Amino acid sequence: MDVLEKLTIYLAGDSTMADYPPESYPMQGWGNKLHLFIPDSVRVVNKAVCGRSSKSFIEEGRLEEILNIIKPGDYLFIQFGHNDSKEDAERHTNPWSTYHQYLRQYIDGARAKGAYPVLISPLCRRHYDIDGLLINTHGDYPRSMEALAVQEQVPFIDLCGRSAVAFKEMGDVKSREWLTWLLPGESPNIPEGLEDNTHLNERGAEAVAQMVADAIDKLNLNIG
Predict the structure, then answer these.
(1) pTM here?
(2) Beta bridge pairs of residue 181
(3) For residues 121 and 156, is the Cβ–Cβ distance under 8 A?
(4) Looking at 5, 64, 177, 195, which residue is catalytic?
(5) Complete DSSP assignment for 18-51
(6) Using omega within 30 degrees of 0 as the cis cutoff, is the peptide bond preceding 26 cis?
(7) 87: which DSSP letter?
(8) Distances (CA, A) of 65 to 11, 27, 29, 31, 109
(9) What's the N-to-C CA distance of the chain in angstroms?
(10) CB atoms within 10 A of CB 48
(11) CATH no., domain 3-218
């Protein structure tokens, strides 16, 4: 089959899903690793961009770009929430009103092209309290997305919940192995070191991509 005829999964999301240039290594989004866990007959096109919300992604014309090329039978995976809670007007959405309004544009747009939308809740941030318990930093956004998925009868991958379970099981110290935690001098790209509780490294990106692939199987999506 010609590559142009392959079933394609388009990814729309933020920095936890996005690809990164070599100079940002070891930081990486899980979308870069999804191809490792799905059949070779399926193509992954990662359109996720750092810093975007469900709103700003649309207003920059990025959803329109996807809808101009998506084919009947393709999939649109939609993961937003990290930046929707930001207070700036360019990105902010209300979890129970405008968040739904923007997400519906992805759902309706994909369906109008004969493609299948899939909603994915935002990746859990790695934040622990003084007692070592994981803190919910996403507020109502994951729950709101799940409610919309039920209303619109869209497949839903609870990546927030799945990643939270993993972080809880690993605990504060071991969970750093999935994030961009670097000692000074450990990486030539980030010589001063970094303690980043949001962005994955290569190992974490691969582990989260495996979570998404497992969810695809459990949902019996017709992929591959």
Answers:
(1) 0.93
(2) 195
(3) yes
(4) 195
(5) S---GGGTTB--GGGTGGGGS-TTEEEEE---TT
(6) yes
(7) S
(8) 12, 26, 21, 18, 11
(9) 13
(10) 25
(11) 3.40.50.1110
Q: Are strands 179-182 and 194-200 parallel, antiparallel or unpaired?
A: antiparallel
Please write the tens of the pLDDT for every residue from 129-183. 777 777 788 889 999 999 999 999 999 999 999 999 999 899 888 999 999 988 8
Question: Of the listed 24, 199, 202, 206, which one is catalytic?
Answer: 199
Neighbouring residues of 223: CB distance < 8 A, sequence distance ≥ 6:
7, 9, 38, 39, 42, 75, 216
Residue 199 corresponds to which amino acid? H
Decide if 199 is catalytic. Answer: yes
Higher pLDDT, 222 or 66: 66
Q: How wide is the angle at C-alpha 48 spanned by C-alphas 193 and 164, nearest 5°?
A: 65
Residue entry with tokens 């969810």: 215
What pLDDT, on a 0 to 100 scale, did the predictor assign at position 4? 53
Check if 202 is active-site.
Answer: no
Partners of 134 in the beta sheet?
A: 128
Q: Is 92 a catalytic residue?
A: no
Cα distance between residue 192 and residue 189, in whole Å:
9
Write down the catalytic residue from 15, 56, 175, 187.
15
**Token duo for residue 149:** 């998925």
What are the distances in angstroms from CA 190 to CA 6, 25, 33, 127, 186? 38, 9, 22, 22, 8
